[in-house]
Amino acid sequence: MLFNTFTFFVFFVIVFFVYWFLLKKNRIYQNILLLIASYIFYGWWDWRFLSLIVISTIVDFAIGKLIFSTTDKKRRKALLMVSLLVNLGFLGFFKYYNFFIENWIQAWETLGVSINLSSLNIILPVGISFYTFQTLSYTIDIYRKKIKPTNSVLSFATFVAFFPQLVAGPIERAQHLLPQFLSKRKFSYKHAMSGVHIFIWGLFKKVVIADTCATYVNVIFENYETMSSLSLVLGAVYFAFQIYGDFSGYSDMAIGLARMLGFDLMQNFRYPYFARDIAEFWRRWHISLTTWFRDYLYIPLGGSRTTKMLQIRNVFIIFLVSGFWHGANWTFIAWGFLNALYFLPLLLLKKNRINRDDITMNSFKNWINTTFKIFITFSITSLAWVFFRANDIQHAFGYLKRMLSELSLNIQFLSIERYAIELIGILVLFVVIEWFHKKSEHPFVGKYYMAKITFVLFLIITLGVFSSHEDFIYFQF
Amino acid sequence: MKQFLKKVGFYGLLVVILLFVLDMIYTQVYKNSAPRNKVQYALSLENENFDYIFLGSSRVENTIVTSEIEKATGKKAINLGNQQSKLNDILLFLKILEYKKVKADTIFIQVDYNYNILKNSDIIKSQTLPYIRSNPLIKSYLKESDSTFLKNYYLPFYRYATNDYKIGFREIFSSAIGKKVSMDLSDGYLPLYGRMQPDRISTLPDKLIENNPAFDEIKSFCSTNNIKVLFFCAPFCENVKGVELIEELKIKIPELYDFSDVITDVKNYQDCNHLNNAGAIEFTKFLIDTFRL
Q1: Helix, strand, or coil (residue A303)
Q2: Residue B99 needs a FRET pair 20 to 30 A away by CA distance; which of A139, A292, B248, B287 works?
Q3: Residue-range domain boundaries for chain A
Q4: Window from A414-418, B6-10, B247-251 with minimum mean pLDDT
Q5: Is this prediction's ipTM beyond 0.95?
Q6: Chain B residue with minimal CA distance to A191?
Q7: Strand pairing category for B274-275 and B269-271
Q8: Do B164 and A192 touch (CB under 8 A)?
Q9: A193 and B15: CB-CB below 8 Å?
Q10: Do A461 and B18 touch (CB under 8 A)?
Q11: Origin, by domain of life (chain B) (predicted)?
């Protein structure tokens, strides 16, 4: 069930009315409704995989309580290991089994040894990486004595399966979201309206920006061998906007839906393409995952409070793991590696923590300087996205090689009956809107907010892609 | 909550108003602008007389050089072949022409593996959608074949949103500013250039289906309205597989003119199913000679 479909609209309207009108006086009933709705939402894709969520929920709920109830360090560690094994075991099997088998076979074949291991026809459960990380953070935080386990299995199960963020995040922490299921909800007009506004903006990003870009990106990437350099550059730029519109659009819609139900989810994107360096980009992109890796991987490895060599090692580990988290393909690992390379000079020059302030352009010199930095950061990010989008590593290198060597600036007519350059206008408009509202969550603020909403609704209706519902890219992770 | 519902209701109303207004604007623009596709062009014709009209898919659109016919014979011909047209769509064109009192001495209709296809073309469907409420022929064409007919008919803007690729913003904008299309619609021939790779093949279906109701209806429609119709099969390259289908078709339709093998030289093809410009000219000359047009 995609957020941008009529089916979901009907589903949400029913949930909303039952939740606020029939069950508003009873938090427990509200949680039961949310849990059932979340399981229906998930089961809509494939009900069989609901069992994985249920097992994760039961295991982590029980282990959380057991860890808390014991003071024996070894036992606590062993219990944590069980949680890690179960959760990462599911993730490893469903997401990475075939990758390892195939690479294992290939590695032996390069040595001239033929081995007979067969890969399995495994379907990847939607959103497995997201809810696995969410439940893991719960047991790890209990182990670290940062939180106490909940006594309510219902609240915990709802926290794990909460449908707005179940399949593509934001990856919430128990510390932040779980207490919200344990307390009574009060409807707030302001809160709910902000949810509606952020949902509309997310919908715009998805159906106008991401899905329109997707139609161009698919053609350009699949036919890169016949494309000019300019078309390939545009393909990379379009994909940068596609993935941003798709993923941040989904996050916005998730945040908006949660707010309409009285919940607060964490911000997942903060205008990442206005970042002035790659470190700032990663503080603004997929914040819930970046902070997860920071807290549960980077800092335990020593983070930046260690020797330079270990810092470099830690940076590579975190980016490579982050790449691999996205998918079992060398392209994602290359993407992570490239980002680590981008980050390295900042780390070595101790400049990874500059640009933490808001972007200001108070003089012409400052304007030039900031624009240049944003342009460079966007360019190298787009270059790395080529690996993210490519079907395999050869595809990525072939694409980049042709992009940098073909050197023709032809404006090509694509098989989708569009000129390769046609989309630029919409993207410029999008960047301008975001730029002037970069201090707020969405553009519907200020005196003319109604006019802005009308305009965006107009754009969604007229420019939105409704003929084919493109899946959200991050569902596959 | 009341305030929230009021506000959300207002947004909902705003969306509905936008949908109605945009639907009205789009429909009016399509109705009143210069034709940009062959459905629009056929609908714009009124009381016209042609000597020859050609109907079919891209195997007609890219194959019959009407200007050659006019040049050689001085007679008036039009190519109303349309990419991806199926027999249902050809029937619609016949009905539109009759409705618009467009007469022709002979109508040539392409029949080949399209006999096996019972559904309509998505392209023609999307081109007809702006007229769903204003043209009874189109209404009935869509009612019979389109599973989303009710949504397209009753929900404002639904047809434009779900067919954005063909009749969405880009097309409406082009129509509104009067942007010309790449082909001359009054002639209707769209040339293809380039040559096929000699090793390219095309595969026709294994078996002919029992019956195509649209074909039967075409025959009965032409007979009822005294339309002289000739069925023909346009050329395929020599690499085509399953050409036995055409033999089967000739048994089913004895009056079918089989021209599937009249152009043999690979240099005349753009791909195995489509002649290039040189091949199209050669084939048109062949038709002129064969039928003494």
Answers
A1: coil
A2: B287
A3: 6-186, 191-276+359-476
A4: A414-418
A5: no
A6: B4
A7: antiparallel
A8: no
A9: no
A10: yes
A11: Bacteria
In the structure, how many helices (H) and strands (E) does chain A have? 19, 0
Contacts of A355 (CB under 8 A, 6+ apart): A275, A276, A277, A279, A280, A373
A400 — contact with chain B (CB < 8 Å)? no
Residue A74: both structure tokens together: 């070894």
Which A residues in the span 70-99 are in contact with B, Cβ-Cβ below 8 Å? Answer: none
Q: Per-domain residue ranges for chain B? A: 2-291
**d(Cα A112, Cα A101) in Å, to the nearest integer?**
17
**Element holding A200 (H helix, E strand):** helix A189-204
CB within 8 Å of B174: residues ≥ 6 apart: B36
Token digits of residue B268: 């005349």
Residue B13 above 90 pLDDT? yes
Nearest C-alpha in A relative to B162: A467
Q: How far is A359 from chain B (nearest CA, A)?
A: 33
Please spell the DSSP secondary structure of chain B, one letter per residue.
Answer: -HHHHHHHHHHHHHHHHHHHHHHHHHHHHHHHSPP-SHHHHHHH--S-EEEEEEE-SHHHHTT--HHHHHHHH---EEE---TT--HHHHHHHHHHHHHTT-EEEEEEEE-SGGGG--S--HHHHHHHGGGTTT-HHHHHHHHHH-TTHHHHHHSTTHHHHHTHHHHSHHHHHHHHTTPPPSS-TTT------S---TT--EE--SS--S--HHHHHHHHHHHHTT--EEEEE----TTEE-THHHHHHHHH-TT-EE-TTS---GGGEEETTEE-HHHHHHHHHHHHHHHT-
Query: Chain A partners of B181 at a C-beta cutoff of 8 Å?
Result: none
Q: Do A454 and B14 touch (CB under 8 A)?
A: yes
Quick check: A474 pLDDT over 70? no
> How many angstroms separate the CA of residue B137 from the nearest CA in chain A?
25
pLDDT band at B291 (very low <50, low <70, confident <90, very high): confident
- B111-141: burial string, b at 16+ Cβ within 10 Å, e else: bbbbbbbeebbebbbbbbbbbbeebebbbeb
Put simply, the answer to whether B161 touches A20 (Cβ < 8 Å) is: no
Mean pLDDT on A134-153: 94
Write the residue in A192, A193, A461 that is nearest to B19 by C-beta. Answer: A461
A428 interfacial to chain B (CB closer than 8 Å): no
Confidence of residue B39 (pLDDT cuts 50, 70, 90): very high
Query: pLDDT at position A5, please?
Result: 87
- Decide if pLDDT at A119 tops 70: no
Looking at the domain that runs over B2-291, which CATH code has it been given? 3.40.50
* pLDDT, mean of residues A175-198: 94
**Range B118-122 average pLDDT:** 88
Q: Which of A189, A458, A467 sits opposite B164 (nearest CB)?
A: A467
* Range B36-62 average pLDDT: 93
Disruptive mutation site among A216, A462, A469 for chain B (greatest number of B CBs within 10 Å): A462
Q: Would you state the pLDDT for residue A93?
A: 85
Query: Tokens standing for B197?
Result: 């790779």
CA distance A204 to A194: 15
Cα(B241)–Cα(A57) distance, integer angstroms = 57
Q: How far apart are CA B290 and CA B293, in angstroms?
A: 8
Asked if pLDDT for residue A171 goes beyond 90, the answer is: yes
Interface check A367 vs B, CB under 8 A: no
The residue count for chain B: 293
Six-digit token string for B47: 């009381």
Give the 3-state secondary structure of residue A224: helix
Q: Give burial (CB, 10 Å; 0-12/13-18/19+) of B266.
A: middle
Provide the annotated active-site residues of A: 326
Measured between alpha carbons, how far is A397 from A379 in angstroms, rounded to an integer? 17
